[in-house]
Write a structure and sequence with these properties.
With 497 residues, the chain is an all-alpha fold. It has three domains: 59 residues, no CATH class; 144 residues, no CATH class; 241 residues. It has 21 helices and no strands. The radius of gyration is 29 Å and the shape is globular. The termini are far apart. 25% of the residues are buried.
């Protein structure tokens, strides 16, 4: 009915296995042979539409597709901003701040995680341009995610999270409180209204949205980058249990690296805990959660516990490293992470002690511990985590690029990174202190700046590790060459005179 099918041999060079990578067709004249008559017949069949392969030959320009995607992205962003702004303006001024604070608390963690994914994609792009073998540094397999695939994941996260937030703002401002509290369920199963109604009676606002993120990570089937998700989950498991005796291998660089990033995301984990707490206690889309002394309020004991967990994990990693290597540097590094513990718990004591004790005793101790933690962390970044002898080598790209021209070998990069790292190390204690987190806009800004500090920290930390690996490989090669030279000298002595 639609014409005959063209039979193609299985060993044809034009057939490629499609997976997570782009499918590339290497069609060249040398591969097609020298039979011009067959080429003419195939071209006529393609023009006549008698083969299903004709659809693969008609493809829009990649540049055109990219421009169209960017246009749709900006149109979508404008629509979300417009709907969100109009929804906020519909509310009364006295309820507007409370409502924005609640919406911020639920979506702030996911927005910051999305931002971190975007920044990590930029890190990988710079490593690729500078010919830094990050796959060797992080011990990745051949199926690792490239910067393009990281950006693809970040794009979907950027679409899903703000869309859900816009729907929440719109529904709540228009009086649909129950729909606002269940809008993630509404998005996922809008064809099953009765089931959704039953779910929303038992689940709060972001249950399915948060559960979808967790299920995406632990989904056991071979879709959505299974090997990369398994690598991430395995690394997280090793971070949480660094002293477990069953680990035959020592703590690896990916374990240290990801644990350091988690310390910058401690505020994100704290907000995630508060969000889940309010879902469990059905305090979503109400003002009951605003009571500071409630189980999910700002005075909750769970807040400092969640804040301190990344530092505890990193502390025990250093202890495990000292057990394996007997290096005293590991103990000094463990001491650095232990200085964050007093900052967190002394701040939380404000809500559990009398005001005069806080002013006279605990507040001075908190200030002292904050200064100590900031300066110690800054010192360690400069002297241990970074290699200042080749500070901007990471920006030496293999091909000419505007980024390499602006950053490689520039003194202002050296000064900027040191100064910004010192300032942001000091402001980071603001986020760790529960009694200073009343202004959510300020806290969000400081947390985002900490993400940017960690983003620039990644460049020089990976560069330092890269230099160490290269120096070790050079030493090993030189040790291999020495016996060869000795053998040549010995063999030369056996000649006849």
């Amino acid at each position: 009915m639609f014409g005959g099918l063209v039979s193609i041999p299985n060993n044809s060079p034009h057939l490629r296995k499609s997976g997570s990578r782009p499918v590339v067709f290497d069609i060249g004249t040398s591969e097609l042979g020298n039979s011009s008559e067959e080429d003419f017949i195939e071209s006529n069949e393609i023009k006549s539409g008698t083969t299903p392969l004709s659809s693969a030959a008609i493809m829009p320009s990649p540049v055109l597709l990219w421009r169209f995607k960017v246009l749709l992205f900006f149109v979508w962003g404008f629509i979300c901003c417009k709907i969100g702004w109009d929804s906020v303006m519909r509310m009364s001024a006295d309820l507007r701040d409370l409502f924005l604070y609640e919406a911020f608390l639920y979506y702030n963690p996911l927005l910051l995680v999305t931002m971190m994914v975007w920044l990590w994609g930029i890190n990988l792009w710079v490593f690729t341009q500078a010919n830094v073998s990050y796959t060797k540094i992080f011990d990745l397999d051949q199926n690792h995610l490239t910067h393009r695939e990281i950006w693809k994941c970040a794009t979907w996260m950027t679409i899903v999270v703000p869309t859900s937030m816009t729907a929440y703002l719109y529904l709540y401002s228009h009086g649909e409180v129950s729909l606002a509290a269940s809008q993630p369920v509404f998005f996922l199963c809008f064809d099953f209204k009765e089931i959704c109604y039953m779910c929303t009676e038992r689940l709060n606002m972001q249950v399915l949205l948060y559960a979808a993120v967790a299920m995406t990570l632990i989904f056991p089937f071979d879709i959505f980058y299974l090997s990369s998700r398994f690598f991430l989950l395995r690394t997280i498991w090793r971070i949480m249990f660094p002293l477990q005796a069953s680990f035959s291998a020592a703590i690896s660089f990916p374990d240290f690296f990801l644990a350091d990033i988690f310390t910058s995301m401690s505020k994100v984990f704290s907000d995630l805990e508060r969000s889940v707490c309010r879902m469990v206690h059905r305090q979503v889309a109400t003002i009951a959660w605003f009571e500071a002394d409630s189980v999910c309020g700002s005075h909750s004991v769970a807040i400092p516990i969640v804040l301190v967990l990344p530092y505890i994990f990193r502390f025990f990693q250093c202890i495990r490293q000292y057990k394996d290597t007997k290096e005293k540097t590991s103990l000094l590094n463990a001491l650095k992470y232990s200085t964050a513990i007093p900052v967190i718990f002394l701040s939380a004591l404000k809500y559990h002690v009398f005001p005069d004790k806080w002013t006279n005793i605990y507040r001075p101790l908190w200030l002292l511990s904050s200064v100590l933690n900031s300066l110690y962390s800054f010192y360690w970044d400069i002297t241990r985590d970074w290699d200042l002898s080749c500070f901007t080598r990471i920006f030496k790209f293999s091909k000419p690029h505007i980024v390499s021209y602006l950053l490689y070998g520039r003194k202002w990069v050296y000064l900027w990174v040191i100064a910004s790292n010192l300032i942001l190390r000091c402001t980071w204690t603001y986020k760790l202190s529960a009694h200073l987190r009343h202004n959510y806009i300020t806290v969000f800004t400081i947390t985002a700046l900490e993400m940017l500090r960690r983003f620039q920290w990644v460049f020089f930390r990976v560069e330092n590790e890269w230099n160490k690996m290269n120096s070790k490989s050079n030493i090993q090669l030189s040790m291999i060459d020495v016996p060869k030279e000795e053998e040549k000298l010995l063999s030369s002595n056996g000649h006849n005179v």
